[in-house]
Design a protein that fits this description.
By secondary structure, this protein is of the alpha+beta class. Helices cover 33% and strands 20% of the residues. 12% of the residues are buried.
Length: 69
């Protein structure tokens, strides 16, 4: 696989792995789009959530149900 979207010598599979890893999710507190690979995360009911900053994570951790409505 090759094309303008490829960088360096990455294979198609490597490109897709990076694209999936860096796909965007929504911060449940502020609704900002965040990379799925963000290191600021919480788990609630076996579901992982990512956050734009530690403040949003702390708010979520206190009352997750409030932000999942």
């Amino acid at each position: 696989m090759s094309g303008w979207w490829m960088q360096g010598n990455a294979t198609g599979r490597e490109f897709l792995q990076v694209a999936v890893k860096d796909s965007l999710k929504v911060d449940p507190v502020c609704k900002m789009k965040v990379k799925a690979s963000s290191s600021i995360k919480s788990t609630f009911n076996k579901q992982e959530y990512v956050f734009c900053n530690k403040s949003c994570k702390l708010k979520f951790d206190k009352t997750p149900e409030k932000y999942l409505k």
